[in-house]
Amino acid sequence: MSVGEALLSLCDAQGMRSIAVVGTAKNVGKTVVVGTLCAALHARGVRFGIASVGRDGETVDVVDTMPKPRLRLHPNTIAATASGVLSPSPACEILDVSNLATALGPVVFIKTMAPAFVELAGPPSASAVRALKRRLFELGAQRVIVDGAIDRLAALAGEPDAVIVATGASAAATAEAAAEDAGALVQRLKTPAFDPEQPYIRISGALDAMAVSELIRANEMRQVVVTDPTRIALRGHALIRARERLRIACEQPLNVVAVTVASIGRDRYFEPRALARAVAVQTNLPVFDAYTDRLERAA
Amino acid sequence: MNVSRLCDAATAEALALGWLEEQLATASEYGRERLRGLEPFDPGAESDAQQQASRFVSIANAAGPEVLESIREALRELPDVRGQIARARLGEVLTDTDFFMLLRFCEITARLSSLVGNAFLDEGITVCSEARDALAAGKSGAFGFYLADEFDPTLAARRRELQEAEAQLERLRRQLAERVAGELQRAQIATDQFIVMRDEVHGTLPSGVRVVREAPTYFLCELELDSPALETLQQRDRCAAAAATAEEAVRVRLTSAIAGCADALELSAEGAGRIDVTVAAARFAQHYRCVAATYLREPSFQISDGRFLPLEHDLALKDRSYVPIALTLERANVLTGPNMGGKSAALCTAGFIAACAAFGLPVPAGKASVGLFSRICWLGIGAEDSAQELLSSFAREIVRLRHLLQEEAATLWLIDEFARTTAPDEARALLLALLRRLGEGKNCALAATHLGDLDGDAKIAHFAVRGLRGDGPPVAAAATGDALRALAERMDYGIQRVSQAQKSESDAIELAGYLGLDKELVESAKEILARCSR
User: Fold this and answer.
1) Which among B326, B327, B329, B325 has a CA at the least distance from the CA of B298?
2) How close is the nearest chain B Cα to the Cα of A111, in Å?
3) Which of A94, A217, A226, B386 is deepest in the core (most CB within 10 A)?
């Protein structure tokens, strides 16, 4: 079974119709993972839609102008992208022009008529991403893939989306550090849903270090409830400490199903199996490497 | 709406003309622009204003709300294609997204055309059939657009060639990937670059694999195309370039067709804007039970059952009812009456209706005969100029009056408690002098005041709010909201012409009691008033 097919099966098992792939950093193989998912859906004969939060699939990195993997879509794929990055050839069918604005023009819904490299650019707001997803389903997509960004994950909170976290050699200086970061992120994203039957205190806005210190000092025993996991503005040890002392929960949980690793980075390479193993231990989730076509699980 | 041609910002705020504009919100960008540019009718254009207002009302009466809503729905979907038209005129090659929008524009204007006919609108919308026909081959699904093969046989041929080359390349690449995957004992090679662990290679790497990087434990690899595959790749790229050229040639041709019918498209867009504003005005008339005013050539004003809609709306939100008023004004008029009796609301009603009439809109009244005014000016409470904060209230009022008097134009003056912050005798003198001045020329003025003895001048008509009814229910002052509701039931907001000199009653002390002011204080005030009267 290919990595794309294995990831799809995981999502199927949880009944998720849409899948969001989010990276812990730039150049961690997000587009490659999205490409494998597209290939697997195409192989299944599923009509699917794809959208991006931010910009993805460009030929070169807009920051450092280095070449990037490109997103090649099969015919009959529905995509949402900014009109300004839509390639004139091969021509696509224009299905709709939305009133969602991006810096690169309004978001356009297209259907590929021939195999095509497509650059995706989406709107920045959570509500706009939700609107995109809804429209892709209306336009006939049976599944939707969202090429996401960590800071825009709020768009997926409370939605029946499977979240796949991508990490890799570009994320940190060592494989251990990359694994630790991925572990902390997954722990944050997997913040459980709160129990309305139990006492709780609702935090409006972000739960940051100052708020956590206050709550710990006040010996807060109730559930500390944020809207969604993206509102937890804590990392690394601060998050671990906060979880030890407080019962942090959320109103709209996220469904993180797997992690992918890319041992090939822009500036460094990690040993592939060691990276996958370390990430599996830190995240306690199935870890896939699209480059080695392998699955790693924590022992 | 060009409200600033009719009144200044302070007056517009006092009359809540922003609220009026919100109620007239159009559905399309064309309508929004047309509404923004809507000018008030000048005195002398009474028959034009009359014609427009009557048209709006007759459409409101003839077409049901659901018909107007269906037109608005179509207008809402109408894309703004003015940018595309302008770019085509300048020779810029349009994109497929542009063609999608233009085709959609043509389709919706055609739908609008039939909807408008059903709604008894006397104005049609031109459907640009040239543009629609030029783009028709690209229509896919309900509204989609694709640069289809039907546009050009050459395009179809180039695409077929590309498709064949693509399929051939794909076949060769798949064969290579499958062979390599098989030799490496993997399910597939799914990525452009892939990693092969050294301990998985028995002997050498399969042929057709290029090593990009060697590491102690693995190889980073890519598939290496052989000569036939490379030749196919070259062929595929040639075909892709030819197909792209053919596609662009079709776009050039379509753009030229659009440029050729740019005038007709712009006419369609203008028509959509006109219809949008008409439908918005008709909906306004329907929703707020408005009528077409009869336009008078004199600066006068007669209304029955007139309503100040923003206040009516606010009261309805609080489950309170609004009492419409009747007013007949000519030249200079003064309005007195109790506090909370609706004097300011009467001024607002007059101003709001005059503003609607000036823009040729239906007016919220049972019946209305209104002259056209070049200006509406609000003076007094609610029109303080914050830019002159260093001046006292009185000084600010006087400075504003000085500015307003500089312009000689047919003006509706609405004066609310003028000179209320100075000594009553001098305030009365100032107000009388002002009303005498405003009674001349092409003005009509209504001044609300608590100052008495203002009807000594034959040229100034005196109106009064009827005020508190003695036989009403008792007022419970426990909660302000309840007290206000009970007071409203006891208040007769009707306005009557007062023919003889009459002392103005404010009922202020009684009202203060109803509103929950300390009983002892109220009684004390009553005693003082009684002593003064004696």
Assistant:
1) B329
2) 9
3) A94
